[in-house]
# Entry
Amino acid sequence: MVTKLSLNNENYYSKEANREYLSVSQFKSMMQCESAEMAKLNEVYVEPFSNALTVGSYVHSAFETDEVFRQFSEENSEVIFNKRGGKYADFVQADMMIDSLMNDEFALFAMQGEKEVIYTGNLFGADWKIKIDSINHERKTFSDLKTTQSLSKRYWSDKYQKYVSFVEAYDYVLQMTIYREIIKQNTGYEYTPYIVAVTKENPPDKAVIHFDASRFDFELEYVETMVPSILKTKRGEGTPIRCEKCAYCRSTKKLSKTFELAYLLD
Ligand SMILES: [Zn+2]
# Structure
């Protein structure tokens, strides 16, 4: 038996941790493009900087502690503050989103609990790592904060074969399902998930979203079907599948044949 790497806030996002454990974001990345994710794991590719990701982390940090928020703002001051000492538009918007939730008792109630809690577990033959935004052991609930464009925007989903909301489109139901299972393995209880959503609109819209329990079964079945091939690719067996659409695939693409027009919208 190989001893598993014990995870903490310092090593949670490390390459070592990402190789040993599957996370929901890694599962999603592998579903999108195995080739790009494997290139990241093998440290031959670094994802381009994303301002949207930094904005998301900024909003998150505001609901951890004042100290975490201050530290995050300091470490990312170059992307947050302009030369005149004001904030760039995305972060002015982010401040509105933070205020919108901070001024809402119900949203704050939904986010009450221990922050950034790490658990590991085994599901469908894979070792998983999860990091929960907020978990409340008294109420047996947990919540995840999400920023999005609009609460009612529709996205076409190949997975669900219909138009869905941002919650399904970004696989947040899948995320909540995996978290629920891993929390159950660690605590012995079925915790209830909530998503606290706030929009990038001016002024921001917001909602606390709960889930019909039947949704979890669908996601578990889906993950169970996909995990074996993902683990195989992670072990280095077989060639990772290229999506031919993402930044990594575009940057490494070599043309060798022509395509009929219909291929473009495939
Ligand atoms: Zn790709």
Notes: The chain has twelve helices and seven strands. The CA atoms of residues 17 and 28 lie 16 Å apart. The mean pLDDT is 95. Residues 33, 35-36, 242-243, 245-246, 248-249 surround zinc ion (CB under 6 Å).
